[in-house]
Amino acid sequence: MKKFKLQYKPFGERSILIEWPQIISENVLRSVLLYKQELENFNFKQKVYIKSAYNSILVSYNSTINNIYDEILTLKSIYSDGFDSKNNDSILWKIPVCYDLEFGLDLDEISLKNNLEISKIIELHTNENYLVYFIGFLPGFLYLGGLNKQLHFPRKNAPRLQVKKGAVAIGGSQTGIYPNESPGGWNIIGNTPLDFFNVGNQNPCFAKAGDKIQFVSVSRSIYFEILNQLENNTYHIESEVIYD
Amino acid sequence: MIKVLHPGFYSTIQDLGRKDFQHLGVPMSGAMDMHAAKMANAILGNDADCAVLEITMLGPKLEFNCETVIIVTGASLSPKINTTIVKNNTLINVNKGDILSFGTPINGLRAYLAVSGGFQSEIVLNSRSMYQSITKASSLNKGDEIKIHTKSHISKKYSAIKMDSNYLNNHVISVYKGPEFHLINNEQINKLFNQEFTVSKENNRMAYQLQELVTNNLKDIITSLVLPGTVQLTPFGKLIVLMRDCQTTGGYPRVLQLKESSINLLSQKKVGDKIKFKLKTH
After folding, report:
1. A24, A136, A205 member nearest B248 (Cβ)
2. What's A7-84's CATH class?
3. What is the distance between the alpha carbons of residues B50 and B119, in angstroms, rounded to a whole number?
4. Is residue B199 located within the same domain as residue B73?
């Protein structure tokens, strides 16, 4: 794997930010996740919390770091050590989405302005495997990469005060799923019955950075059947392991 | 048990926060003035992670259904037991049927009520800190009943630590350079450190916006990680200081980062209060 030139910055008295070049790419993400994995396996002297985004890692320590520059040297040594290792296996999750107009409140508008039949929008949206870059913004909100250019559509000028839980939407060059009911300015094209954030589960969000998401178009009746199965705990999300 | 006769303006149960789930986009939460909350627990002899009640400006009215020992720290919000005025930072013996209420806010914005053994509210994702969509309730409501330990279960190891409320009068907010500090010019740096800023009415547990603008032509950054205490500079020139309930990621340039103790101090500031940034180095 390509070795990137990284920058290390103290971020307050308890955190160190590690930055990759300012680009969004799958290669950068793979490098971020590899380093993150090495950091998670490292035996730190105190408890640390490690988070990642597109091109950065934040290592936060439980209490003030005595000498932040010494600690940066420690982090640097872990990067070179971990250079040859392999990413954890990623998972491709198949997410059922009902693109019925009942849910896809903005399908008509996108169809009109982007000059695409609704069936074409669904085809383009379900054809792609989207890379999960990280989880942020809201609990269980996945930052996904890979939306087809023909589907890019600007955010709404006035956000909706209430977007339904499970809404599948497009905001600019991004697509995403609202994990819970919340205000939101993205254009809604469908809805998934799946829970992307459930505090009752041991792992509240099934997906992780580095996984991939595929949307699968389902009918209204299948949508409600899945909802039912979820309630009875008999639904299993379809998934495949992706090997590097 | 404690019964909520009136919830006050905005009262939430908080502890040290929800640190283990940030990678899933879950806000850290926890007491805004962590120092005051920790001191309340320390003086009572509680564990540091005991949940306390964070009281904002106008306090609640609470009825105790058992004997216990309590303490109020942080802002001076004129606490009373029944009709007797009580002091902040002092252990108070409470009897069954006693009513704790608050009066005029005198100094600071957020007070902390700790009870012996801590509030026994629901734990979600390893924390009792209330947060919408995570905990069932996002603040106290009239008629709520919160479990607490009865006095017979409490060890009497009160601490002799003293808490001093003088910090509430300080208005200097210590900051470190943020990850995008190098993108701002000298004129902007001068403005940041030589002028006073005013807390705007947009201030809550998520963020404090400041009134005075710092004009800039900075572009958004690739969405990256933020922390409580991160100061973002928007294209419009607004400074936004992220607080304990902030999102885990953001796309505005992060020009400053508050020192932990300054997050506590800022939590005590209300709309119209003046602050001044002071740069610290590592």
Report:
1. A136
2. alpha beta
3. 7
4. no
